[in-house]
Amino acid sequence: MASLRPVQSVLAFLTILPSSSGKQQKQNHDIHYVAKNMYLFPVAGLVIGTIVGAMALGISVAGLHPLLIGLLVAGALVIITGVHHTDALADFADGLMAKGGKEVKRKAMLDPAVGSAGVAALVMYFAGMIIVFQAGFSSSLAIFTSIITAEVIAKYVMVLLANRGLSAWEGFSSPFTAAMKDRRRMAAATAIMLGIVWLASSYAGLIALGVSLAIAGLMKYVSGKSFGGISGDVLGASNEMTRLSSLIVLSLLPPSLPTMMILWWW
Q: What is the largest CA-CA distance in the chain?
């Protein structure tokens, strides 16, 4: 069980899934311990994607309308992740759209109240998450593999931003940006992510990854200009934005070879 503690720590941090109790639970919620194991975020993405993807697979096979599938998937992701990343998206939008210098933008992002920019961002995000399932996934199984791929990529992007970026201030993101400057951890995160993405979606997953990397680069640049670096809200917002972008890309592409082999067996 000791070997599973790093995975349990990132799952306890990223989700509301029950973790261990007592001393180990305290360790799982230690921010510095979680930061040291951030390279395992793609593994957490695999777990989350498998749970939500299996639900989507079941209700899709049952014949539910694609828009309803999108609504249930979006709701399940928000619930299982404890609303943290969704809240971060709203805070990021509020900070980005605030008029003024970096201090004004930081203050707007840290304000617990959601502003008009945050509301608009959430509406657009949920609309996109719902509509994407109407866009044309070729099968129920394609929905399953796409959700896994998108979730793994989204978690990897957070790791990448922590590796490439600097914290805008000493705060929530600081332990992660410090820990992920380790090249071996970054290489491990990349290897884990690529393995899962390739097995789940092959070339389509790599295209989705490429789009997500472009979004991550843009977010890093914009955050540096607006806030002086990245923050916990920037990391959380990147998760939501790249998850949606990956699903959009995967919905527009034909099934890849590994997925087609699974579909043939199915």
A: 57
- Per DSSP, what are the bridge partners of residue 230? 167
Residue 5: pLDDT band with limits 50, 70, 90: confident
Note every long-range contact of 15-24, with CB atoms under 8 Å and residues 24 or more positions apart, other chains counting: 15/44, 15/47, 15/48, 15/80, 15/81, 15/82, 16/79, 16/80, 16/81, 16/82, 17/47, 17/80
φ, ψ dihedrals at 167, nearest 5°: -65, 135
pLDDT digit string (tens) for 190-231? Answer: 999 999 999 999 899 999 999 999 999 999 999 999 999 999
CA 136 to centroid of chain Cα atoms = 22
Residue 177 structure tokens: 């940006």
Task: State the Cα–Cα distance between residues 53 and 70, nearest whole angstrom.
Answer: 11
- Tell me how many domains the chain contains: 1
Question: pTM higher than 0.85 for the full model?
Answer: yes
Distances (CA, A) of 247 to 136, 142, 212, 243: 11, 11, 10, 6
Which DSSP string do the residues of 116-134 spell out, in sequence order? Answer: HHHHHHHHHHHHHHHHGGG
Q: Is the four-CA dihedral 244, 248, 251, 256 of positive or negative sign? A: negative
Tell me which residue has tokens 């082999």. Answer: 261
In this predicted structure, what is the pLDDT of residue 114? 84
User: Can you tell me the distance from the alpha carbon of 239 to that of 178, in angstroms, rounded to the nearest whole number?
Assistant: 19
Q: What is the mean pLDDT of residues 50-79?
A: 89
What range defines the domain where residue 115 resides? 2-265
Is residue 199 within 8 Å of 176, Cβ to Cβ? no
Phi, psi (5° rounding) for residue 37?
A: -105, 20
Find the Cα–Cα–Cα–Cα dihedral 185, 190, 192, 195, rounded to 10°: -160
